[in-house]
Give the backbone structure.
Amino acid sequence: MALITPSAHLADVRYEIRGALTRRARELEAEGLDIIKLNIGNPGRYGFTAPEHLRGAIASHLQESEAYGHEQGLELAREAIATQQRARGARHVEVERIFIGNGVSELIDISLRALLQPGDEVLLPSPDYPLWSAATILNGGQPRYYRCAASQGHHPDPDEIEALITPRTRALVLINPNNPTGAVYPRELLQQLVAIAARHQLLLLSDEIYDEILYDGATFQPLAEVAGDVPCLTFGGLSKVHRACGYRVGWMSLSGAPIRTTAYRDALQLLAALRLCANVTAQWAVVPALQDAPTIGALTTPGGRLHEARRAVLESVAASDHLDLVTPQGALYAFPRVRGEHFATFDDNAFALRLLEEESVLVVPGTSFNVPGSHHFRITLLPPPAQLREVFTRIERVLSGMAREERQPRNVAMA
């Protein structure tokens, strides 16, 4: 019998955040082991809850949620998003240039599908959130990676980005605050990147889903305000700042000169219409989320759970014989690096599997974020601080064991 073979498009697509290591973790759980899962930024799984006024807004509009909605989203919700974007300095943002989707994930796919011809190139950060790479590939595009190295504070080099541009380059993607590194980009850097986009007629795609999750006085600068008339598509949603991942409500806002983006806006609307509409029920939470008092600050300021979890990670890395870390300024993750002096070679996937098998801790290897030869791994900051300290005790045991094994062959040879 002929085998059913998958699409060749999937050959270069990876998503280890929910990949082979996660499947192995489930097998170990089925055997009775208690796995500490640090692979996904999923607040509801760690005891965080959506604000009560968001739940109330949904409950009070259930009867109005049973029919298909507008393909771009509820008008009241889009008005609230447009108001927020204009208050942040975005130009030419109107309700008809706002799109609500089933999470930012769906909208990333739609935005690239509306843009790319086969072989077109998209500039992506390395490390990236791997959905951006996957969506580029699955829509016929070619990722071109610009480095955001730890030695540069995980900030990109504008000159390096510009050197990557070819006649096929269509878009520049930014993730700010960054997943997986927690970097927050200063205004001066964003100005340089906007200038590059303007010179080369690129569409800016700015993933800002972590926009209000900031630590120790870090300042978030919306890209659309800096971009001005340069076309920019900004992504946001309820899943992280408002701890409502399961609601699956994301949005994208198209700013910049309308004369350059009218055809693209119409293409986005066509694709939105083909999937009928986003989840209507949860869209009622958008207005109170954006108009009522913010709630994330209680978690990210000193004494707040996310702030203290981050402190636990920073102190644990500082005490480690094997790790270093660029302090995350925002988002829900840390991206530690295994120092190379104790390891002639280092395989981040082998390390992650060993950590899972020996210490029941699930992390994501750095190569999963399109960083070749990575010594990094990503963890989420969502678990309680005490549990994160325990995690790093286990990580240290595994790395110390690996370091001893590195020394053993040399010692045997000398004997």
